[in-house]
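Structure representation.

___
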Amino acid sequence: MNYQWYPGHMTKAVRQMQEDVKLIDLIIELVDARVPYSSKNPDIDEIGKNKSRVILLNKSDLADSGENQKWKNYYSSLGYKVLEIDARNKASLKGIINIVKEACKEKIERDKKRGIMNRPIRAMVVGIPNVGKSTFINSFASKACTKTGNKPGVTKGKQWIRLSKELELLDTPGILWPKFENNTVGERLALIGSINDDIIDKNELSLAMIDFLVSKYSNSLYDRYNIEYKGEKSIEILEQIAAKRGCLIKGGEIDYLKASTLLIDDFRTGKLGRITLDSVQEI
C-alpha cells in the first residue's frame, strides 16, 4: 500500500505558519519518540530556518529508552535543544522553561542590551497530526486551553496561549508534507495514527508491523500473546494472534481485520512494550 495523506486544510495551515513565523522567537517541534525521524516534518525546517529550535521527543515512555538517547544525541548534534517528554505526565515537562531559555539565549541577551526586560519568549508549537501537541500544551499550562483527541486533525486553527510572563505559545494544526520520501515513512506514520485510519489497509499494516517485530522485538509477541516465533510467515503469526484473542467470525474463521486492529492498537497504547520503529543507523 502507498501511504500518502495530505488533505486540503494542511496547505492552508502551512501558508498561515509561514506568516505567523514572523511573530515568534522559537519553534518547539514535537515528534513521536517511536518514530523521531519519520514524524519530523521537513517543511518545518524550511519555515523555521532562521529561528531557534527545540525538539520534544513526546511519548518517550512508549519508545525504547536506549533509542531515545540515540535520537536525543543525534538531534543535539544538529544544533537542536532536545528533551524527552510524556505530554500526559506534567512532571516530565519541568525542564521545558530552562531548555527554551537556553535555545533563546542570544535573543534574551540582545533584549537586555537594548533595555528590553521581561518580554516573553513567543514560541510556535508545531508537529504532525496526533503527535500530542494539544495534550502537551494543556499539561504545560495546567488547564484545558486546547482541544485534544486521539485522531489526527483535532486542532483546526491557531491559538495563542499565555503561560507566564516568560513564555507565550502559539498552537498550530498538525501538518504533514505533500509526499513522503519513501513508503516506510508513510507506513510508520500510519502505525502511530498520524494518517487517517479510514484510508489505510489495517490488514496490510499489521503484517508490516509483525515483520518489524520479528526482526527487532520478537520477544514482544511472546510476552503479549504467548506466541514464539519459529519461522512462520507474518500472516500465520497474525492468525495465531487471532486464535489466542478470539478474533473469529461464525464458523471459527479468522477475523483478520479484528486481529489487525488489535495488534495495531496494542502497539499504539504501549501494550507490546517500549518499541522504536526508526533507527539512527537508517539515516
Notes: Residues 70 and 281 are 10 Å apart (CA to CA). Residues 152-156 have pLDDT under 50 and may be disordered. Residues 202-216 form the longest helix (15 residues).
